[in-house]
Amino acid sequence: MIRINSIKGNNFDAKKCLLRLDLNIPLSDSGEILDDTRIIESIPTINFLQNQNAIIIIISHIGRPKGKFVKDLSFSNIYKKIEKLMNKIIHFIPFEEQNNINKILSKANPGEIYLLDNLRFNRGEEESNKKFIEFLSSFSDIFINDGFGTIHRNHSSITGIAKVLPSYGGILLEKEIKDITECLRYSSNNSVAILGGAKISDKIPIIENLSKSFNEIVITGGMIRPFLFASGKIVSEGISSYTDEVRIAEKILKSNHKIYIPEQLVCSKNLNSEPTLLHCSQIKEQDNIYDIGPNSMMEITEKILISDKIIWNGPPGVFENKNFQLGTKTLIMSINQSKSKIKVAGGGSTIAAINYFNSNKNFTHISTGGGAFLSLLEGKFLEGIEVLKT
Q: Which of 97, 240, 263, 301 gives the lowest tally of CB atoms within 10 Å of its CB?
């Protein structure tokens, strides 16, 4: 079991606490927040610190500005919305005022919250630069990481600062690590892992690791097509099939006999064309797979309903399109109906699907992380966790 230094049981009265959150949230073209999950999940740690009269300095990033100030990626655009969602007063420190932060914080009162502008406006953040780490530590007494979605990054605000200041994990971070690792460790004779995504290469280590603790692995999303080619179930002549993805799928299938590949699929030439229900043997070159058909979804549902451990990453189809959302909707309904003791989901598109169908109540854990969630499933060494271990 992974154990980290927890903020619980510690006293931060009047301490300047540098709080690393993951506020890299999806935004619309007009700047509206599309998913507030990460913001809401950070509130318990902020409440804990406020109740202890700590001075809270939130640091985070958004997007990839590559070490330069980009107006569209400034927290100045959304901090008022974050403030409203948290129901807190937040004192925003613009990028141009960053070097005056010590002067600003000298007037801070216990319990107040400050938000520093996008960390990635500084090149030293992603480079884990010593000078930038010294800057972060210059106005802080304590470091607390509650940004699970960033824990797989070796950046100044994640690993670098933790080696300089007394460091702790926040309430969300501790819960993420506990729930995900417990899911992997829980012994079960009836368990299913549902994996989607476009790139099989990204999933090889995850499939290998999950195979140790799950009885069956269901393939969904963009990985279906190469797996069908690799298994010889797409046989149409003239289709250019032997790609790197197919080669990888072949290797996985040779070493792993727990994999289920759906055979009835919802296809179309493009997302604007009429959907067609096809058996995999009927698929032609022009047929794109956008969802899983009802017969295959029924088989997946049967697996879910008898499972007492479920993990899900990746929607079965393009759920935002009404023509291709039935598979995702059915999958979520099946997980909701399951009496499984453990139901864990994670990944950006997975969370978006759960929120789209307003179905977040019946999961035992929904992870706020994308890459970090997958890294834990893979069993990777994560420096952001290592620096916080007891």
A: 240
